[in-house]
Design a protein that fits this description.
CATH superfamily of the largest domain in chain A: nicotinate phosphoribosyltransferase
GO molecular function (chains A, B): glycosyltransferase activity; nicotinate phosphoribosyltransferase activity
CATH architecture of the largest domain in chain A: Alpha-Beta Barrel
Family (chains A, B): Belongs to the NAPRTase family.
Largest interface: A-B, 117 and 117 residues
Radius of gyration of chain A: 25 Å
Mean pLDDT of chain A: 94
Oligomer: homodimer
InterPro entries (chains A, B): Aldolase_TIM (IPR013785), NAPRTase_N (IPR040727), Nic_PRibTrfase-Fam (IPR007229), Nic_PRibTrfase_pncB (IPR006405), Nicotinate_pribotase-like_C (IPR036068)
Pathway (chains A, B): Cofactor biosynthesis; NAD(+) biosynthesis; nicotinate D-ribonucleotide from nicotinate: step 1/1
Structural class of chain A: alpha/beta
Keywords (chains A, B): Glycosyltransferase, Ligase, Phosphoprotein, Pyridine nucleotide biosynthesis, Transferase
């Protein structure tokens, strides 16, 4: 995939500088020592879920495939590294030819995960794998955090559509990735045009308070909006007095008015009152959209309210209290010597700081109970027991440095829904709790 | 500033789609109604600081100037808007020629702010101003959140250098902006090469646990690293046993070893033990860097530890509990009619939902007490009292659509330090509290 296909405005010509300096200095030292080309396997996993969360959601995989394919050191980047004296000339020469040529396996996008799940496995020489740590973790940690929040909100909304509208609350490009991750997690649409442009996510939006304030009266504003956008539009009814605004809205647009939006106040109370008023005015099909600092709990509290859609901003794009995951990228195996046929041996950090890792290249399977409901995340490094062979979670994502698992975003969205539906019922409780599946190492 | 100057890899060809759809539909409706060209003023402000915070920090201003200058609808964007039926043909024609031609004033980057502070004022026609809402808020809300966390950490570090190393915990481009904002807030350097490339921030980094695990022994790894990076390098000493690693490190590098890094365990205890061991080994000048889930509180708790530098990741790039600000972009004044000379009149939303705004174009001044210490953030819409004329906070940032206040990042960093130093002493308490200055409206 070349740059043009990545499209404006979220293209970056190369992802190679989304890298912590120590990856390059390690490369230099390993090249110097002759150990850079040992075969290695790195795994992405997390030691724990965010406090109280029942499951995690893998997101960003599609972006990650683009990022790895576009990881190359173009001349301006090499010039910078030379001028900043980050690494020496032999290392710069090696970087000039860098392309990842290894293998990536992992949980497919949308899949759920638990503590210890081998979410991603990157195999290749130390030199080619070590460089990818930061960009891989940036993408997975950010996107998975948003998708997990989105999934909880989708559960709370119970089928009512969710609109992502948090662009203004996060970095402008993080926002585009957040829209994408929210869609994977179950959102229906976004206000962010860049997300529509880049990922084809349906976009929505009609007007803000500024539009009402621009005009000499609320009636003028509604008339202008309906005149241009049609009666199917959504009128914002809380700039001045909601009751008066709803009356004016139906007078201006007629009973076929598409929707009204409420952005402040006690949404439960106001939604009931507005529904009653709309029905009295004959606007039975006019929908009610609510937006105002919603999160999964506020959405759940509106389950009985006559609300037709939720717009969610801040709490979605900040992961509803958990804006990042704690995924790490750790070497779990390396060749026992320098030859191309030296066998892989497990490795792991062993200090006493509580950051223990499990060495070895892992497989993972989700074991179902007799009813087909998942009951454990089983992780091993040896042979896969026969009864788990049909339940393995990892798939091949890149082979010889090329993505082999690109898919439509809807496929990841559908996969997430299906994976969540196979978890025990307590997975979708919003209250704080333990991971809904235990992790078993065998 | 053209694209090339913006540089790789964080260039975006245009910022015009970092926009919520409703901005374009409002534009369409206003063009249709003939109200699009009324003169308006929009202000960015926040109704409150994050709970417990004593002051806010303006950051992202420099990025914002680039974003507004690069806000234009190139043909591929217009094609997308047409195909997705976001707006009609007359609106597309208007967008094709769009350039912001108005004025931007605001608090300069690095300045502190309080609830109600008019952080930014955008003046122009409704059409040209309304489109900028999302991109302006994205940048200010993200960058200011990071800078505020960085500032608290800098206070806690009390002069010891702080290294930004959170790239892996946030979106890959948010990370670059986070490095920049952290530098404004008082950090010294970053691990993120893209931030070094794009903004000239000093970069640092040497090695991770993977480097030790790659080698057949810790001694081999240290020998390889010192052989390539020199004795001034930083050796990571907590892969296996810290005491043994420190002994090996000094044996390999000699007493001129640059530094050791500790990334796990009870940092207070371990730092003391390592310092003692280094001194016993004659490595009196070898520094100690600590990194491991640090935040401002952990940093403060290490004030008496023999630590020479702090590396901070997750908690910095997630705003230490507050990953976004709650800045909003509200129309505060508009022309009372359609003519070019119609006077501006204040406007504000008036519904009862608690989201009150104060209408009118504001000035702000920070009033000092007799000792020169700030005692109030004074905000008004009328004439500036003579005694406050020398203490106004707003400056001109763009004139006729062109940036007039570009500056080196160090200028914003120095300004922040100076502004913080003029606040009452309680500003730098880490404990939860009220904003350290009250906001007075006159």
């Amino acid at each position: 995939m070349d740059d043009l296909e990545l499209g404006l405005p979220v293209t970056v010509p190369s992802t190679a500088l989304f890298t912590d300096q120590y990856e390059l200095t390690m490369l230099q030292a390993a090249l110097h020592a002759g150990t850079a080309h040992r075969r290695t396997v790195f795994e992405v996993f997390t030691r724990r879920l965010p406090a109280g969360r029942r499951y995690g959601v893998v997101a960003g995989t599609g972006r990650l495939l683009d990022a790895v394919e576009n990881f190359r050191f173009d001349p301006p980047l090499l010039d910078y590294l030379r001028e900043a004296r980050v690494v020496d000339e032999p290392t710069l020469r090696w970087l000039a030819d860098y392309r990842f040529t290894g293998t990536v396996r992992g949980y497919p996008e949308g899949e759920v995960y638990f503590p210890g799940s081998p979410i991603l496995q990157v195999s290749g020489t130390f030199a080619e794998c070590v460089l990818l740590e930061t960009v891989i973790l940036s993408i997975l940690n950010h996107d998975s955090a948003i998708a997990a929040a989105a999934s909880r909100m989708a559960v709370a909304a119970n089928g009512r559509p969710l609109i992502e509208m948090g662009a203004r609350r996060t970095h402008e490009l993080a926002a585009v990735a957040a829209s994408r991750a929210a869609y994977v997690g179950g959102f229906s649409s976004t206000s962010d045009l860049a997300a529509g442009f880049r990922y084809g996510i349906p976009t929505v939006g009609t007007s803000a308070h500024a539009f009402t304030l621009l005009h000499d009266s609320e009636r003028d504003a509604f008339t202008a909006q309906v005149g241009s956008l049609g009666t199917g539009t959504t009128l914002l009814v809380d700039t001045y007095d909601v009751t008066e605004a709803v009356r004016t809205a139906v007078e201006v647009a007629g009973p076929k008015l598409g929707a009204v939006r409420i952005d402040s106040g006690d949404l439960l109370l106001v939604a009931h009152r507005v529904r009653r008023q709309l029905d009295e005015l004959g606007a039975h099909d006019t929908r009610i959209t609510v937006t105002s600092d919603l999160d999964e709990y506020a959405i759940a509290s509106l389950a009985t309210a006559p609300v037709d859609a939720y717009g969610v901003g801040t709490r979605l794009v900040t992961g509803s209290g958990h804006p990042t995951c704690s995924m790490v990228y750790k070497m779990v195996a390396r060749a026992s010597g320098d030859g191309p046929d030296a066998p892989l041996e497990p490795v792991a950090k062993k200090s006493s700081g509580g950051k223990l890792s499990v060495g070895g290249v892992k497989w993972a399977a989700r074991r179902p109970d007799a009813d087909g409901v998942a009951e454990a995340e089983v992780i091993g490094t040896g042979e896969v027991p026969g009864e788990l062979a049909g339940h393995l979670l990892g798939v091949e994502l890149m082979r010889d440095g090329r993505a082999v698992a690109r898919e439509r975003l809807d496929a990841a969205r559908d996969r997430h829904r299906a994976a969540r539906d196979l978890l025990p019922l307590s997975a979708t409780q919003l209250s704080q709790g333990e991971p809904v599946l235990r992790t078993e190492y065998i």
